[in-house]
Amino acid sequence: xxxxxxxxSGDTIAEKTTVPIKEEHGGDSTREHLHQFTVKFPPxxxxxxxxxxxxxxxxxxxxxSDRYKELMFEDEKLVIQLGxxxxxIIIATHFPCCCISEDESLLITCETKPVEEAQHQPxxxxxxxxxxxxxxxxxxxxxxxxxxxxxxxxxxKKFKYLCVYGEKGMTVQDALQRDGRFIDLxxxxxxxxxxxxxxxxxxxxxxxxLNGKTFKICLLKRKRDKTKGASDSHRRDKSDARVRASKxxxxxxxxxxxxxxxxxxxxxxxxxxxxxxxxDEVYEKLRNQFPDLKxxxxxxxxxxxxxxxxxxxxxxxxxxxxxFSEVHRVRQLVKLGESVCKVxxxxxxxxTGFVLFDNFILxxxxxxxxxxxxxxxxxxTKVYALFNYEEPEPHIKYICYPVxxxxxxxxxxxxxxxxxxxxxxxxxxxxxxxxxxxxxxLKVFGPMPSDGEACIVGHPAGSVKQMDPTIIIExxxxxxxxxxxxxxxxxxxxxxxSITHVLGEKGINKVMMGGKLxxxxxxxxxxxxxxxxxxxxxxxxCRVFGLHTAxxxxxxxxxxxxxxxxxxxxxxxxxxxxxxxEHREDDMLQRVKEAAEENSYLQEVLNAIDTxxxxxxxxPME
Length: 622
Fold this sequence. Notes:
This protein is an alpha+beta fold.
């Protein structure tokens, strides 16, 4: 088949010389299939010749190489670049080797996270490029894709095209779903031709005439109206009817078919079963379908590991009770908690914050991500801080202050904090005598502990102020803590696979051993979910060491999470002071230094920054 590459002068893909094609299945098939291509492996990038003498996939050809075996790559993390033009075209591991042109060049790299769902070798190999249609998907999406992820790993966006193939007669949707590099939820889309964007190909069309063409994925907006709910209900009713019919016939196969269509758990489908469905048979079929996953789950949860984990949690809970049940410590936390406030971004959301020093509040920057344009808060956006919000309505004893956003520093892998300034004159309700802003907590900042007890004070789900004693999960124990949380889903493989995928998309691997954030956050379990972002996290000595920032939620309703995390406040303090120095905010910097005078940890940070070379730059609010 002719192989296509992008011309350097434009966006079109030009055809190259063709490979000899086998006309019949008889005769010397090895000789008729025989062709070569070269492969470069990191880190030396020397070229290795691959001689392909039978139908197969690119991965199978690579696995025949001694050099590939030495490097011990993880197949699902491979990125295979086609051609010598850097950053242009990449193919899947199961791409048919017969579609690689004679003397073509491949460059192999590897990502830290999977870029492709684990693929089984096809049951029947494509033995002629005439059997396939090869087309190219632009990594820059088309209509309605700006905020929607398209790929399993965003690292693929470094390249211009994903090369996709489909056997003749296969639909576009089937080809993309089989590819493994696109997200599982990619459905109901169209392809727009790069040469003629007004020409659209629906996902239900066959691939036969797409050979050599380049496309952008365009997503269709889902209509949010009453008919949607009715449509979803109708589809569910139809599936439930099939389950009921299968129960009456004792048809286990039909139950599995419905499971696949609805992408739900075995437990949900079998919840209303009767004895005509053989549960053991259903589970056995699932285990046979996913042997590697079953092996992994058995290794994660051997024997009575879950029960032993529960016993350890009981021991931890006793420790927490002891630390945070002492009256003097509770009294101290309640006093410090007066500085905690509910943050309301009118029309956008709610969170938590606390007084940092003077009239300044510290909270999370992600509370404002939907109301910032070009680095500035939208002029019509109103932000308020509610103090003393400790009793449910109709008891209104809180004091509401309007606040202005002074600084937002947001980088999902580094920092997520905002500094707000209180307007004392805008106090509402206005008392006969103005109430002072509670004291700042900057003076009680402390280092991030690696283990031990902790307590969070905040406004989960926008509710009244609450406290949650917990225990820090050491970095070496995070994976085990997650496994323990997921243990109840061990036997419901579809659900477990879905949860694992969701957690991976949320970036949980970054905080695990080997991840880039493993030493930059502190982790724990808490009920402080939505609305508690920006809460202070105290240690057993009532020092504030963290800013409660995020959690890895896998069910939204009711909310269930496997792990929550906080940013270390000393890191935030260091960045804030550097920003003040670089932007010559001398007055505020002096106020910060005065608030930090009696805190040895903050003095160390200030002294270290004072010895740095000054680098001034003017930047907009991030």
